[in-house]
Protein backbone atom coordinates (compact mmCIF):
# COMPACT_ATOMS: atom_id res chain seq x y z
CA UNK A 1 0.00 0.00 0.00
CA UNK A 2 1.36 3.41 -0.90
CA UNK A 3 2.18 5.74 1.96
CA UNK A 4 0.19 8.94 2.24
CA UNK A 5 2.35 11.96 1.76
CA UNK A 6 1.94 14.61 4.43
CA UNK A 7 0.23 17.76 3.21
CA UNK A 8 2.01 21.04 3.68
CA UNK A 9 -0.02 23.15 6.09
CA UNK A 10 0.18 26.82 7.01
CA UNK A 11 -1.13 27.66 10.44
CA UNK A 12 -1.45 31.30 11.47
CA UNK A 13 -1.43 32.14 15.18
CA UNK A 14 -2.32 35.65 16.29
CA UNK A 15 0.06 36.77 19.02
CA UNK A 16 0.13 39.81 21.25
CA UNK A 17 1.31 40.74 24.73
CA UNK A 18 -1.62 38.94 26.42
CA UNK A 19 -1.44 35.53 28.03
CA UNK A 20 -4.41 34.39 25.94
CA UNK A 21 -2.40 34.53 22.73
CA UNK A 22 0.51 32.60 24.26
CA UNK A 23 -1.98 29.99 25.45
CA UNK A 24 -3.33 29.78 21.89
CA UNK A 25 0.21 29.27 20.59
CA UNK A 26 0.88 26.61 23.22
CA UNK A 27 -2.41 24.90 22.35
CA UNK A 28 -1.50 24.95 18.67
CA UNK A 29 1.90 23.42 19.37
CA UNK A 30 0.40 20.72 21.60
CA UNK A 31 -2.63 19.82 19.50
CA UNK A 32 -2.06 20.72 15.87
CA UNK A 33 1.66 20.70 15.21
CA UNK A 34 2.32 17.70 17.43
CA UNK A 35 2.27 15.42 14.37
CA UNK A 36 5.83 16.53 13.55
CA UNK A 37 5.00 17.17 9.93
CA UNK A 38 8.18 18.90 8.79
CA UNK A 39 6.26 20.46 5.92
CA UNK A 40 4.17 22.57 8.29
CA UNK A 41 4.67 26.32 8.51
CA UNK A 42 3.74 28.26 11.62
CA UNK A 43 2.99 31.93 10.97
CA UNK A 44 3.15 34.25 13.99
CA UNK A 45 1.06 37.33 13.25
CA UNK A 46 1.31 40.48 15.38
CA UNK A 47 -0.84 43.55 14.79
CA UNK A 48 0.80 46.77 15.95
CA UNK A 49 -1.79 49.30 17.02
CA UNK A 50 -1.81 52.23 14.63
CA UNK A 51 -0.32 55.43 16.00
CA UNK A 52 -2.95 57.73 17.45
CA UNK A 53 -1.30 60.62 15.67
CA UNK A 54 -1.63 62.32 12.37
CA UNK A 55 1.54 62.94 10.46
CA UNK A 56 0.74 66.45 9.35
CA UNK A 57 3.90 68.54 9.62
CA UNK A 58 3.84 72.27 10.16
CA UNK A 59 6.42 74.77 8.90
CA UNK A 60 8.64 74.24 11.96
CA UNK A 61 8.92 70.48 11.37
CA UNK A 62 6.59 69.56 14.25
CA UNK A 63 3.90 66.95 13.86
CA UNK A 64 0.33 67.30 14.97
CA UNK A 65 -0.94 64.94 17.68
CA UNK A 66 -4.77 65.05 17.77
CA UNK A 67 -4.80 68.78 17.48
CA UNK A 68 -1.65 69.32 19.55
CA UNK A 69 1.79 70.02 18.24
CA UNK A 70 4.54 67.66 19.32
CA UNK A 71 8.15 67.24 18.45
CA UNK A 72 9.49 64.44 16.27
CA UNK A 73 11.10 63.08 19.46
CA UNK A 74 7.69 62.09 20.80
CA UNK A 75 6.83 60.27 17.58
CA UNK A 76 10.22 58.52 17.64
CA UNK A 77 9.67 57.48 21.27
CA UNK A 78 6.24 56.06 20.43
CA UNK A 79 7.68 54.14 17.48
CA UNK A 80 10.54 52.82 19.62
CA UNK A 81 8.11 51.60 22.28
CA UNK A 82 5.93 49.88 19.65
CA UNK A 83 8.98 48.12 18.18
CA UNK A 84 10.17 47.04 21.64
CA UNK A 85 6.73 45.60 22.29
CA UNK A 86 6.90 43.60 19.05
CA UNK A 87 10.34 42.26 20.05
CA UNK A 88 9.04 41.35 23.51
CA UNK A 89 6.07 39.41 22.10
CA UNK A 90 8.14 37.60 19.47
CA UNK A 91 10.82 36.72 22.05
CA UNK A 92 8.12 35.34 24.33
CA UNK A 93 6.78 33.22 21.46
CA UNK A 94 10.32 32.08 20.61
CA UNK A 95 10.88 30.89 24.20
CA UNK A 96 7.63 28.94 24.04
CA UNK A 97 8.67 27.36 20.74
CA UNK A 98 12.00 26.27 22.28
CA UNK A 99 10.07 24.18 24.81
CA UNK A 100 8.97 22.07 21.85
CA UNK A 101 12.52 21.37 20.68
CA UNK A 102 11.49 18.15 18.95
CA UNK A 103 9.08 20.05 16.72
CA UNK A 104 10.41 20.57 13.20
CA UNK A 105 8.34 23.31 11.59
CA UNK A 106 9.19 26.46 9.67
CA UNK A 107 8.33 29.67 11.49
CA UNK A 108 7.42 32.92 9.76
CA UNK A 109 6.68 36.23 11.44
CA UNK A 110 4.33 38.91 10.20
CA UNK A 111 4.08 42.33 11.84
CA UNK A 112 1.66 44.88 10.40
CA UNK A 113 0.01 48.01 11.76
CA UNK A 114 -3.74 48.10 12.11
CA UNK A 115 -6.73 46.64 13.87
CA UNK A 116 -5.91 43.01 14.79
CA UNK A 117 -9.05 41.62 13.18
CA UNK A 118 -8.18 43.32 9.89
CA UNK A 119 -4.48 42.44 10.02
CA UNK A 120 -5.14 38.78 10.83
CA UNK A 121 -7.82 38.40 8.14
CA UNK A 122 -5.63 40.12 5.55
CA UNK A 123 -2.62 37.93 6.41
CA UNK A 124 -4.73 34.75 6.36
CA UNK A 125 -6.08 35.57 2.90
CA UNK A 126 -2.74 36.77 1.52
CA UNK A 127 -0.84 33.69 2.73
CA UNK A 128 -3.70 31.27 2.00
CA UNK A 129 -3.39 29.65 5.42
CA UNK A 130 -5.11 26.40 6.28
CA UNK A 131 -5.97 27.36 9.84
CA UNK A 132 -6.11 30.41 12.10
CA UNK A 133 -5.62 29.98 15.85
CA UNK A 134 -6.54 32.82 18.21
CA UNK A 135 -6.74 33.33 21.94
CA UNK A 136 -9.94 34.59 23.50
CA UNK A 137 -10.28 37.50 25.89
CA UNK A 138 -13.85 36.48 26.65
CA UNK A 139 -15.42 39.68 25.31
CA UNK A 140 -18.41 37.94 23.79
CA UNK A 141 -20.13 38.64 20.49
CA UNK A 142 -20.76 42.35 21.09
CA UNK A 143 -17.07 43.31 21.30
CA UNK A 144 -15.89 41.03 18.49
TrEMBL record:
Signal peptide positions on this chain: none
InterPro entries xrefs: Rossmann-like_a/b/a_fold, Universal_stress_UspA, UspA
Gene3D superfamilies, A to Z: HUPs (3.40.50.620)
Location of the UspA domain: 9-143
Coiled-coil intervals: none
TM regions (residue ranges): none
PANTHER family: ADENINE NUCLEOTIDE ALPHA HYDROLASES-LIKE SUPERFAMILY PROTEIN, OS05G0357525 PROTEIN
Protein name per the record: UspA domain-containing protein
Amino acid sequence: MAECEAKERKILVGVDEGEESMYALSWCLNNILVSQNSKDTLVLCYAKPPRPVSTAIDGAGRRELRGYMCSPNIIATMDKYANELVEFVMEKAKRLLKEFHNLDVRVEKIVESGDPKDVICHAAEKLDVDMVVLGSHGYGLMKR
